[in-house]
Amino acid sequence: MKKPSEDEVRRLKAELYDGIESGKIDIAEATKSMRNILGMSGREYAERIAKVSFKTLQAIEKRRGNPTLKTLEALGKPFGLKVGFVHAKKNE
Questions:
Q1: Is the pTM of this model over 0.70?
Q2: Is a pLDDT exceeding 90 seen at residue 59?
Q3: Cα-flanking dihedrals φ and ψ of residue 65, to 5°?
Q4: Topology adopted by domain 6-79
């Protein structure tokens, strides 16, 4: 997988952070976005960055996983993201 240019990385990160803050993207989408921003395959991101099994990452990205807090922290760490509570909108 080809790593995006620096300008593209900045744009994609801004989209990622906006999507997270607005609640428009979930953990699965955020995980895929982070991996793609780094230009990594699922296996690379799982093993080199998050230090989880590739199967675990696949399950998260397919919305089938039930990741631990430790796993979620590892996935978000390269982007300065931490796991926490988010205020839900009233219509959710």
A1: yes
A2: yes
A3: -90, 165
A4: 434 Repressor (Amino-terminal Domain) (1.10.260)
